[in-house]
Structure formats: structure tokens, C-alpha cells
Amino acid sequence: MDQGKELISLGLFGQPVKASLSPVIHRSFADQFGLEVSYQLIETGVEDFPGALESFRHSGGVGCNVTLPLKQEAWRLATGATAEVDQSQAANTLVLRPSLGWFAHTTDGAGLVADLTENHGLDLFDQRILILGAGGASAGILGRLLAENPQQIMLVNRNLERARKLSERFGSSGNVAITSWTELSQQGAFNLVINATSLGHHGEAAPVMASSFAKGGLCYDLNYFRASLPLKKHCEKMAQPYIDGLGMLVEQAAKSFSIWTGKQPETGVVIDKCRRLAG
Length: 279
Hints:
Elements: E1 7-14, H1 22-33, E2 36-43, H2 49-58, E3 63-66, H3 71-77, E4 80-81, H4 83-88, E5 93-97, E6 101-105, H5 108-119, E7 128-132, H6 136-147, E8 152-156, H7 160-170, E9 176-179, E10 190-195, E11 213-221, H8 229-237, E12 242-243, H9 246-261, H10 268-278
Parallel strand pairs: 1-2, 1-3, 4-6, 7-8, 7-10, 8-9, 10-11, 11-12
Antiparallel strand pairs: 3-5, 5-6
Helix pairs in contact: 1-9, 5-6, 5-9
């Protein structure tokens, strides 16, 4: 460590996190500005999270990311939060305010929109968007997607009550509808289909049909690397354009990095670096 530089102590809480790319991503960001960053991977479940977070603070931690299964717990533990966090009821970024405690942000939605619009040139205005799943991943992206003024966002989920509650929470922000998987074929075609299910982690592809895609429509998977392969192969069989979520991962990390340091890193070179690491 350069003796003239202050070490910025950061980390990632979740379970599992040992294979996370976050240390590589944030150290790459830090290198762009000549900053000294320590980024720890802290494996912890829900019960141990409060104690682990407190230990991290006492050891000098000033900011952290939070992943599954802790995002809702991070929102509950924070002493303050953005309106976007309160609406989604989950946080993926905490920043320490020394006299006030942890303040919660969510950068998932902003990262997704940045990848879609800046990296892939999509215009979400007046588009029909289908989100597969109505869990925490969907909640984390709905607000920012609605801010782009799509024509409609439809949630498809096996548990319609969960989808209904989520749609009601965000209904004041735009047109959010729900449907079941059995009725999805009756809902017409969508310009953008976003996979927010965890099926890829179990080697399964979400059962989306070719008829759900409008002409020129795109499938975007929040998963990346191995977890993205089942849906990627399914889309290839349908000759359907597909993008995985690696760009979103890096873009949401850049938003977190900016919150902690006040600096906005270049993301394209880091996305390319991560793809090379994946082989």
C-alpha cells in the first residue's frame, strides 16, 4: 500500500460470495483513480449479518455491497435509505455515515438501465416489458425501469399473490400488470423480456415462448456466466437475441463505487476484463 494514500475499506456480504467478481471490479475501478481499496468477501447468513456488519464497521469498513439473501435485511438494518430503497424494500449498497450509521442505496435498477441504454443502445420509452419472476430481483429493478416511461411492465410469476403485492407497491409509478405462466401466451408480444428468476442457478431455463417476443425484441438475463447458460441456449434455439447480466453487474458496481468515493469509473474496459476472466 502507498503510505501516502488512505485505504478505503469496502466489502461484500452474502451467501455464497466466494466466487464473486466484485473484488476484481472494484479494484479495477480504484486503479482508474489511483485509489487504495480493500474489498473483502464476507460470507454470512441472515442471522449473523447484523453482527458481521458491526464488526466490519469497527474494523474500518466505510461501505459495502449486499447480495442474496441479505438485501431485505440490509434495508431493515439501515438507519436511513433512499426512496427507491424504501419502495423496493431491499438494498444492495450501504455507506457509513459516522454519526448516523449505515445509509442504504440500491444500484441494481440503475445498473440495468445503464447497461440497456448506454451499452446496448435500447430506448425503453413506450415499450412493453415482461419481467419473469416477482421476487427481490424484480423489486430491485422495477422503479428504475418505470422511470424510463415504458408503455407497460408485466410481471409473470407462479405465485400471483406475490406478483400482485409487488405490482401494487409500484403501481403509482407506472403501468404494472401481472399474469400467470399459464396465461402468458394470451398477453401478446413484448419488446423486452427480462429474466429475474433464479432458475439458471438450478440449470433450468425460464419457459418463455417465442410468441412473447415482438419483432426485434430482446431477452435480457439478470444472470451471467454459468447461471445464464440455460436461458441463453433456449434463446438460441428460438433464434432470439439474448444478453446476459454481466454488464449490469459492472454498471451497478460503478454506481456503488461512485456513492462511496464520489468518482464515476469507466465501465466498458472492466466489462471486457470480466468477460476475459470468464474465458
